[in-house]
């Protein structure tokens, strides 16, 4: 705990928000022109950005206490509602650790400097995950909170479907980094399913997408978190390193299976039977074959990424403009677009648009190749991990996937008996 507080203090003391504020009044047009309404929150003064960082840090510390030490489901629910109100509706989902992935990628790609507040928001939940697991997901993330409050009749997603879907966050992460690093677009912000609700407005497509996610979330526990969220993928990497972890029972497991039924995310792992020598030999052979196959899958993904680089670059506005200008110049289309008209009025030669597009396509030739290799690596590692059987003697929360919601705490008779629950005490006596 001391290490977490020390690192938190260093991060907080060094945080200086880098967002600008509007310093001059808008011009008064005499032609009837109206300024467009921004679709995202306006920049705020530094003191309010520091306030956001402070609230995030305090919420994470409180989540650690409630999830790991207090083991309070009610407290987790209360913090979840606060996070939904503050980080969701009040701050309108901006800035958030999930979207901050793109700020980091853009800065690494040389597109801009990393705003300090975005860097802190990106790093802080990861730092906490290294000590106490996914406490950010437990009760601080507004996207997770929005899904948690609508969950009413959870159904179990079968492993044959859940395992392939669990690859999507890693692929989404790679794609978001690629498009942000090349300065093309912020995919995560562009396709955030809940930002339209937080900001009480947005495109029809995103409102529909968010509504579908919320309706699905009534029956499927946190569908976005489990099968799309790229930041959740990063937290899955570091959570197994945590010093303090979620444990279903504070004492001896009586294997009543109540915790397994209470988890809507399928992250309670059951005891494994003792395997015989023949099965272990077969498992080792399968693992060796998959390890040998991994470089092949990476090579295939790399090749496909290279071949698809031109197509992927077409999402870039600069590439779209160059293609439109070329088609207009060679009579392939009739009329003009607003973008091509604006470019023409600048009086710049068409070659400048072509040169800009070629620079973007060169970046994508490299980035898409790496992205393809990343996809091959992700799929190969998934097959390898599925082939590894870890020995367990009790019901345990998965260290990587558990979001620390606390539902399993009160379902455990050993936990309830500590608080004097007579029914739980009787059940423990029956189990000896």
Summarize the structure.
This protein is mostly helical and 432 residues long.
Structural write-up:
With 432 residues, this protein is mostly helical. The protein has two domains: 1-16 and 46-244, no CATH class; 277-387, no CATH class. The protein is built from 23 helices and two strands. The protein has helices spanning 2-13, 46-69, 73-90, 97-108, 116-132, 135-139, 142-150, 159-165, 168-181, 187-190, 195-198, 204-217, 223-227, 230-238, 258-262, 277-307, 309-313, 317-329, 338-345, 350-387, 407-411, 413-418, 422-430; strands at residues 268-269, 396-397. It has a two-stranded antiparallel sheet with strand order 1-2. Helix 7 (142-150) packs across helix 12, helix 9 (168-181) crosses helix 14 (230-238) and helix 9 (168-181) packs antiparallel against helix 20 (350-387). 37% of the residues are buried.
Low-confidence stretches: 1-27, 35-39
The succession of helices and strands, N to C, reads HHHHHHHHHHHHHHHEHHHHHEHHH
Number of strands: 2
Global Rg: 25 Å
Helix content: 55-70%
The shape, in one word, is globular
Strand % is: under 5%
Number of domains: 2
The overall pLDDT average reads 84
Question: What's the end-to-end separation, in Å?
Answer: 36 Å
Number of helices: 23
SS-derived structural category: mainly alpha
Biggest sheet details: 2 strands, antiparallel
Instruction: Walk across the major sheet and give the strand order.
Output: 1-2
Defining traits:
2 strands, mainly alpha, 432 residues
Strands, helices and their partners?
Layout: H1 2-13, H2 46-69, H3 73-90, H4 97-108, H5 116-132, H6 135-139, H7 142-150, H8 159-165, H9 168-181, H10 187-190, H11 195-198, H12 204-217, H13 223-227, H14 230-238, H15 258-262, E1 268-269, H16 277-307, H17 309-313, H18 317-329, H19 338-345, H20 350-387, E2 396-397, H21 407-411, H22 413-418, H23 422-430
Antiparallel strand pairs: 1-2
Helix pairs in contact: 1-5, 2-3, 2-5, 3-7, 4-5, 4-9, 7-12, 9-14, 9-20, 16-20, 18-20
């Amino acid at each position: 705990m001391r290490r977490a507080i020390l690192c938190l203090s260093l991060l907080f003391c060094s945080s200086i928000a880098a967002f600008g504020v509007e310093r001059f009044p808008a011009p008064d047009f005499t032609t009837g022109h109206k300024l467009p309404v921004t679709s995202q929150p306006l920049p705020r003064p530094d003191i309010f950005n520091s306030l956001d960082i402070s609230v995030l840090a305090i919420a994470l510390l409180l989540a650690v206490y409630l999830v790991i030490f207090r083991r309070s489901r009610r407290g987790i629910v209360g913090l979840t509602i606060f996070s939904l109100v503050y980080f969701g509706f009040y701050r309108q989902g901006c800035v958030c650790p999930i979207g901050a992935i793109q700020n980091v990628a853009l800065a690494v790609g040389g597109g801009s400097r990393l705003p300090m507040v975005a860097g802190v928001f990106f790093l802080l939940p990861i730092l906490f995950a290294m000590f106490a697991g996914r406490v950010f997901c437990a009760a601080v993330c507004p996207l997770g909170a929005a899904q948690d409050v609508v969950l009413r009749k959870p159904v179990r997603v079968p492993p044959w479907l859940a395992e392939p879907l669990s690859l999507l966050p890693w692929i989404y992460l790679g794609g978001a980094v690629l498009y942000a690093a090349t300065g093309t677009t912020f995919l995560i912000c562009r396709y955030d399913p809940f930002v339209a609700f937080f900001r009480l407005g947005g495109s029809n497509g995103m409102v529909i997408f968010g509504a579908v996610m919320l309706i699905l979330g009534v029956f499927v526990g946190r569908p976005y978190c489990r099968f799309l969220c790229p930041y959740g993928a990063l937290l899955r990497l570091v959570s197994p390193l945590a010093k303090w972890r979620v444990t279903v029972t504070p004492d001896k497991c009586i294997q009543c299976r109540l915790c397994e039924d209470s988890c809507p995310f399928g992250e309670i792992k059951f005891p494994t039977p003792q395997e015989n020598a023949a099965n272990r030999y077969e498992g080792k052979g399968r693992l060796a074959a998959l390890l040998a196959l991994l470089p092949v899958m990476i090579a295939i993904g790399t090749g496909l990424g290279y071949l698809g680089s031109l197509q992927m670059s077409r999402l870039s506005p600069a590439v779209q403009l160059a293609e439109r200008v070329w088609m207009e110049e060679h009579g392939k289309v009739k009329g003009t677009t607003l973008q091509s008209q604006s470019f023409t009025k600048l009086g710049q030669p068409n070659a400048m648009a072509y040169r800009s597009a070629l620079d973007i396509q060169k970046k994508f030739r490299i980035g898409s190749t790496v992205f393809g290799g990343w996809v091959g690596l992700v799929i190969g590692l998934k097959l390898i991990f599925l082939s590894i059987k870890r020995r367990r003697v009790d019901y345990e929360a998965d260290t990587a996937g558990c979001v620390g919601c606390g539902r399993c705490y009160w379902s455990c008779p050993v936990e309830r008996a500590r608080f004097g629950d007579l029914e739980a005490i009787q059940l423990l006596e029956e189990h000896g």
